[in-house]
Amino acid sequence: MIQSSKILFIVIFTAMISLTGIKCINPFAPRIDSESSTLSCSDFRNIENLFCAFRNAYAFKDTNLYGSLIDSKFTFSYRDYDHGVDVSWGRDDEMRSTYGLFQSVQSISVIWNTLISADTGETRRSVVRGFNLTVTFNPGDVERIDGYANLVFTRPTTNDAWKLIHWRDESNF
After folding, report:
1. Residue 113 confidence (pLDDT) above 90
2. What is the C-alpha R_g of the chain?
3. What is the DSSP code (8-state) at residue 23?
């Protein structure tokens, strides 16, 4: 009897050792799509990647990532319809207001919609794009905003990364 349990142990142990050479497969974990996992939104020489990074900055409430997309000469502007004036501010105010927004909400997400218009400049581009913004302050207080962003991107040379230099919010609140 001792002999058969010793043989069983050796068989099981040998089987386990031989299985270590086989790839581990977890049937409960989805397989990583190697094609899409190699795609990243970190190459900012492609404007579409800035939209991807912008979405991620909002989703993760990451002001460092958001700040890396914004040019030092950045200007945000919008129309204050109540007072009939255009309002604008620079990069420092944009970063403070974005930080405050990220800190005061439970979650925030932006979905970039189809391009309305875009030009194809080498070092300066204008893009008008629709967006859906969802701001969750708490489960009972969720704001949804649909609008248009008129964006201007710039870069010193075609080998440099694009940066957002002007954002005109064309939403009607």
Report:
1. yes
2. 25
3. P
Q: For residue 113, which of 41, 55, 173 has the smallest C-alpha distance? A: 55
Locus of tokens 């109540």: 82
Mean pLDDT of 25-45: 58
Domain boundary assignment for the chain: 2-34, 46-169
What share of the chain in percent tops pLDDT 90? 71
What is the rounded distance in angstroms from the CA atom of residue 148 to the CA atom of residue 139? 26
Helix (H, G, I), strand (E, B) or coil at 144: strand
- CA dist 80 to 99, 110, 149, Å? 22, 22, 15
Handedness of CA 162, 164, 168, 173 (dihedral sign): positive
**Residue 171 tokens, joined:** 């939403």
Report the C-alpha gap between 172 and 99 in whole angstroms: 23
What are the beta bridge partners of residue 107? 136
Tell me how many degrees the CA angle 68-91-74 measures, rounded to the nearest 5.
80
Residue-wise pLDDT tens digits, 70-85 = 999 999 999 999 999 9
Amino acid identity of 136? T
pTM greater than 0.85: no
Which two three-digit tokens encode residue 60?
A: 């993760």
CATH number attached to the domain at 46-169: 3.10.450.50
